[in-house]
């Protein structure tokens, strides 16, 4: 969490989305609220690309990507 802002900016830059994606930081009581803020700004294709990049992490820590696929509006 300490490096979240820098990590976001790096990921946005690497994906070439600087002009299209603007991170917003809002204090929220839950992770799902923060995830919604960020993931509603992405397309389904971008979320798939992120999952593909971090697939090993999802598998190692037994995370499911399913909840992230509910956010894109495209």
UniProtKB/TrEMBL annotation:
Got a GO cellular component term for this one?
Answer: membrane
- Report the GO molecular function annotations: sulfotransferase activity
What Pfam families does the entry give?
A: Sulfotransfer_2 (PF03567)
Name under which the protein is recorded = Carbohydrate sulfotransferase
Task: Report the source organism.
Answer: Bracon brevicornis
